[in-house]
Amino acid sequence: MRKLWLYNNLLHRLHNSQSRLLNNRFAHAIIASTMAIVPLSIVRGLVITASVICDTTGFNNAAIWFMQLQVGFLALAPLVMNIYVAVHWAVRNRLSQIYCIALSISTLMIFRRILDDNAQFFLDISIPLALASGVFGNYLQEVVSENLLKLRLWKDNSYTNIISFFATLGIIALFSCAIKLGAAIWLKSGMDFLNNLSMYFYPKDFLHGISYVLLRTVPWFFGLHGYYLFLDIDVAFTAAQKININDWHTLHHPLNILSPVFYDMWCNAGGTGNTVSLIICIFMEAKSPHRRLLGVAAPMAIFNINEPLIFGYPIVLNPVMIIPFVLVPLMSYLVAYGATYLDMVPRISEIVSWSTPSPVKVWLASGHSVSAVFLYLLIISLGVVIYRPFVTTSLKQSVPDNSDLDLLTGEMNMTQPTDFEMVPNYSHIVEGNSYIEAQRQIEKLQNSGQFILYFQPQVRLSDHIIVALEVLIRHQSDSGKITPPVFLKYYERTGLMPEMDFWVMEHALDYVRENMSDAENMTLSVNISPQTLVDYRLLNVVRKVLAKPLPTGWQLEFEITESQKVQEPVRVAEVLEKMRSLGIKIALDDFGSGYSTLHYLTRYPLDKIKLDRSMVLGLAKPDGFNFLRQVVKLCMVVKCEVLIEGVETQDELAQVQMAGIEFCQGYFFHRPLPGNVVCQLLTEQHKKMSLSHAPRFNPQQI
């Protein structure tokens, strides 16, 4: 029972840690950059495979050309990651991509020159340095921009961006000069320490060999290839193996047990983590949702390329699956080292490329040893035994519906079971899969069409005049199909709702200025998610979009959704007060359908309350009308305009008017409409109002 409790508690803690990682913006930047080089890694693997095939078939010149090409891909990877950190940061924080990329590369160049005055920049970059410089430079620019915005010396934000770029670059340059001039000895000591630390992982004996296994596998938790992190170790290790084999051929020295080919044979079958065993486990589970990965991952695994599996399962940021991903290579190392040390299998006498299919590689590198092939099969079988419980556990995770997804945090709203045997079903793997899937869906949307704006009119019931427009987002595919905003759940899951809200706000206001200037005294209502309300960029974006004047009498209104839980109510109240100080109206949407209805009325500064359609549907129930009337009276106590949504029939309209409601939004009047149709409606309304106010002809005045 105690073991079961510890197991359940471990799963619970792993799930919570994964949720925190998936919602950390620094982790986002690293994962985005590592995913960016997945195609590069795959192409590099295929190029190495082509080189091996050419070398085997006697096309030596082609083999050399392909090998030189893969070296170029390897040298390019850190620079690509550095640039993509900047791109991700710019998109996430709505900054100039050009400035962010320039700053990221400049920071990398400065840092690289600090470490080594003779370094060739484009040929000698480590991935840790590329990532660290990208994150550091762009985060520093973000801090500088925030402080410059507080000064409010420039009305145009473009000046702030330019000044913050050069200010950040200056700070980095001064900081670097200070280190180079004032702490050169400390810098050298620090570099010597790092070099000595990295050499600790050099597999010179049995214990250091275990450290090397961990070096190759653990960084994959953050999407980082251990081979790329400490490339110097692998270069030295490969050179040492060549010398050792040459000495063995001349009878000067026995063969070493450890070599790069040793790890490729026994610890990297199918790629890092011995993922051939994982592929077999997935194949064995007929109902596994991950079987769709096999069509891509299995063929690549033949050549020991497993990035599609690592990011698709995923292993990245998955604290559960990283356990067997590390344990299986460790087990393989121990078994293979022991078998080799006891002369049960021969030591490696041939250098074989890592991209060679594993069974063939074992056969060739061991000098055509049958016992080595049997050992390979044993290790794969043991790997299946280790992976299988984790794969089976992942299948027990039930995928919750959207109602269980907290739209602010992206975490599942699940209660802890009282029966400890139920806890292993806790959704610790679904979190990672849903996050990766959301990213894929967003990319698919962006590549298959464009986002467009629709508008739904809000009508004053006393004269049926359109007084406001709620702006809504739709997706239009390349074929012309219009999709309602079901895709917003993907943006909520990945924490990108602020990007969507800002886009809608900017484009809607631009559209109003360009196409609806004839209409006067209107309100443009924009939905603002809880994520956006607590986003530090909101105030800056609002000032930017309101820098240009709106048409005569137009006002901007923010709709906050009562049905979505707000986890920082104090901060939200402060933000809404600032918005009202800028002349923005605040409306509470979906009133009566969510978490804390009365609490919202007293906590937040509101100008309008939008009653949810559930109030209209309730009119068909006994006392439904009386309930609606009491709700309207309650809203009037806080001196807010009252609008009801979802009116679709004449009878519903009559009842809501009797209840004292001022405004209405529903299909009875207008469905959500494209911008050009709304413009036509407003033009016709403007003409009618002009005629009704025109002075009538009186013959007696002649």
UniProtKB/TrEMBL annotation:
Leader peptide range in chain numbering: none
Please report the record's description of how this protein sits within the membrane. Multi-pass membrane protein
**Where in or outside the cell is it found?**
Cell membrane
InterPro entries, A to Z: Cyclic-di-GMP_PDE-like (IPR050706), EAL_dom (IPR001633), EAL_sf (IPR035919), PTS_EIIC (IPR003352), PTS_EIIC_3 (IPR004501)
- Return the GO cellular component terms, semicolon-separated: plasma membrane
Which GO MF term does the entry hold, naming one? protein-N(PI)-phosphohistidine-sugar phosphotransferase activity
Keyword Transferase among record annotations: yes
Record's SUPFAM superfamilies? EAL domain-like
Name of a matching Pfam family: EAL
Q: Which residues form the PTS EIIC type-3 domain?
A: 10-390
What protein name applies here?
A: Diguanylate cyclase/phosphodiesterase domain 2
